[in-house]
Amino acid sequence: MEPVPDGHVLRGHTTAVEGPEAWSVGYRIEVDRQWRTRRAEVQGSSARRVVRTTLERADRGEGVRWLVDGVPRPDLDGCQDVDLESSAVTNTLPVHRLDAAPGEAHSVPAAFVRADGLAVERLEQEYRLRGRTAGAITFDYESSTFGFACELAYDTAGLILEYPGIAARER
Fold first, then answer.
1. Which InterPro entries is this protein grouped with (predicted)?
2. What is the four-CA torsion angle of 117, 122, 127, 133, rounded to 10 degrees?
3. Residue 64 in contact with residue 78, Cβ under 8 Å?
4. Is there a contact between 27 and 10 (Cβ–Cβ < 8 Å)?
5. In whole angstroms, what is the distance from residue 77 CA to residue 105 CA?
6. Which end of the chain is more exposed for a tag (fewer CB within 10 A), N or C?
7. Are 153 and 160 a contacting pair, CB within 8 Å?
8. Within 10 Å of residue 98's Cβ, how many Cβ atoms?
9. Residue 152 CB contacts under 8 Å (≥ 6 apart), including other chains
10. Low-confidence ranges of the chain (pLDDT < 50)
């Protein structure tokens, strides 16, 4: 993470092999002091192609609006975050904002960027604080968009420790 005067910048790169194809996704995500995404620049590469997309938050008094490659996307209205299919790091963004009490559910829709081709769609998701210990914070996570649920574990700085089937940090 790179601090900037009025927020942070997250930079990263992920790679994977799915079926016969290898792909990679690089990203630069700017967030404000409240950990809301302001801008995301994403580049995807595979043997077939290289693609780029830019998502920009465009708050206009009437709520959160998004532009994808400069084009308004009303289907993303109200999303606070960008969530990358290829990276568990974006699941840290809402956790930094939530003032969660145990058992309390928070609906946190996001602009979801697919790894293959970088298509952008709305992701409905919910975080419910399960508990806090001296070394970890755990949330029950659910996405009605994908019919998926799991327990996410974070360190006390809000960075992902374990996302079952997707990511696990070595300790």
1. Glycolipid-bd_prot_put
2. 30
3. yes
4. yes
5. 20
6. C
7. yes
8. 18
9. 91, 127, 138, 139, 140, 141, 160, 162, 163
10. none
Query: CB of 86 within 8 A of CB of 25?
Result: yes
What pTM was estimated for this model as a whole? 0.90
Query: How far is it, in rounded angstroms, from Cα 58 to Cα 55?
Result: 10
| CA-CA-CA-CA torsion sign (11, 26, 34, 171) | negative
The whole-number pLDDT of residue 1 equals 58
Overall size of the chain counted in residues:
171
User: What pLDDT is stored for residue 150 in this prediction?
Assistant: 94
